[in-house]
Design a protein that fits this description.
With 359 residues, the protein is of the alpha+beta class. The chain is built from twelve helices and ten strands. A hairpin with a 2-residue loop joins strand 4 and strand 5.
């Protein structure tokens, strides 16, 4: 994340680096999704947070309690972090969904720091000094000379010790992740061959997505009714691509809903199951397909058998998947062991509601 400090020809400031630290930890440990993939692609199955009574003290944003102790996130700190990110990424301010996601991510980051640092302490994990120095050196190298580096520290109100501590914290969290990855099982030869055959089978599909707002059952009923009406129109002969352009809430709407080719394992299970169950090109799902994002109408447009993935590549892909699953299992274990209390008036985001995807 902080290894590349250049953007559009200028050097990122330390404050930008710290802002990225704030919003990037969840991604670093496999608990978030900031990729540019289509929104129905695989996301990790997570365990809900155990939520305590809401906080009414206006000075507090969140409190997390576990076997590791108790940590408190003050409203002042929460808002300082929030505003710092918005300062560096002003485009977020124009999107209610992204600002809500940011507020939630800040609380999730706070919660997972508590859990990961507690786990690191329990495992006696200490960030290697050489590894810290390497990252400091990388940051220093982005400046023309030592004077410019020191001046940037002064301008941002950051000491080298505080920068070093931020890097140390991130590395410790990454080391906990690496400890979790070590528990991943090696794929067998039969699993590798089955995976190669499976990945060779691809379909091309289009879809129409009707987003449902989290927690709003009244709105969901009307959205479902609209989706049913569009599905009826398609069954009656309406052009699928035109219906997608007119009605889909997905970024693929301008392409008539086209998602291009994909293999198994690239979409969330309900979407994948429905799409791969279609037999012939032009077939449309007879019923609406419900995922965590809303209601989908899916049309199969093509099938093909691609080239077999190289055996060594397939082995690495399976091992990477197993490592990711091991990390997700570890994170979910930690998540289940903490109790979180949130001030809804400050955070304004429900930790246990699925996030609206970004396009």
């Amino acid at each position: 994340m902080y290894l590349s400090m250049q953007s559009k020809g200028r050097t990122w400031t330390f404050r930008t680096f710290l802002a990225l630290l704030l919003v990037g930890v969840m991604t670093a440990v496999g608990c978030g999704n900031t990729s540019d993939k289509n929104e129905e692609e695989v996301g990790s199955e997570t365990t809900d947070y155990r939520l305590g009574e809401p906080i009414t003290d206006s000075t507090l944003a969140a409190i997390v309690t576990s076997k590791y102790g108790t940590d408190t996130l003050t409203t002042e700190t929460f808002l300082a972090q929030y505003n710092m990110v918005l300062e560096r990424f002003p485009m977020i301010q124009g999107s209610p969904e992204q600002t809500r996601e940011l507020r939630r991510n800040l609380v999730e980051d706070f919660v997972m720091r508590h859990a990961l640092f507690g786990e690191a302490d329990e495992l006696n994990i200490v960030a290697d000094t050489e590894r810290i120095n390497m990252q400091i050196a990388r940051i220093r190298s982005q400046f023309p000379n030592e004077e410019a580096y020191q001046q940037a520290l002064v301008e941002e109100g950051i000491t080298e010790d505080s920068l070093r501590n931020s890097i140390r914290d991130l590395i410790r969290q990454q080391m906990v992740q690496e400890h979790m990855e070590a528990g991943a099982v090696q794929p067998t030869e039969s699993e590798i061959e089955a995976f190669r055959q499976e990945q060779a089978q691809q379909i091309r599909a289009s879809h129409i997505l009707f987003l449902t707002p989290p927690g709003d059952t009244g709105a969901e009923d009307s959205i479902r009714a609209k989706a049913e009406a569009v599905l009826d129109s398609i069954k009656a002969g309406a052009d699928f691509a035109e219906m997608a352009r007119r009605h889909s809430d997905d970024g693929s709407a301008s392409q008539g809903g086209d998602l291009n080719y994909f293999s198994r394992g690239q979409m969330v299970p309900p979407f994948e199951e429905a799409a791969f169950s279609l037999k012939d090109s032009g077939d449309v799902t007879p019923e609406l397909v419900k995922t965590q994002y809303g209601y989908h109408i899916i049309q199969l447009t093509d099938r093909r058998t691609g080239e077999l993935v190289d055996t060594s590549q397939a082995r690495q892909m399976l091992l990477s998947r197993n490592r990711q699953e091991a990390v997700e299992a570890g994170i979910n274990r930690l998540r289940a062991e903490v109790t979180v209390r949130v001030n809804p008036n400050v955070v304004q985001a429900d930790l246990n509601q699925p996030l609206i995807p970004r396009y």
